[in-house]
Specification:
This protein is of the alpha+beta class and 117 residues long.
Amino acid sequence: MNNYELMVIFTPVLSEEEYRASQKKFAAFVKENGGKVVHENPWGLKSLAYPIQKKTTGLYWVLEYSAPSIFNEKLKIQLLRDEHVLRFMATRLDKYAVEYNAKKRSGVPTATEKVEA
């Protein structure tokens, strides 16, 4: 099983309940297909770099998961079918990225952050 990070931009017209339901739907889809959710991080409403479908903002959500490589095609199909999804990107994480994310979650300062003396 490989480690992946999925970033999804949902349409900004979703209510808070619909936003949470969409997150739960995709997290459950990962679990149903033999994957394991490592971490979820809802970023909330952010400005887009350029308009997508005449929208200038989007609801961001980042999901870190481990799953077999064949699973990503199934996930891609589900994301493309969902009308609430504006854009998505799945990235395979190497061992250094997995270690970095674990440190970041636990609060340990990483090399990219300034340490207060």
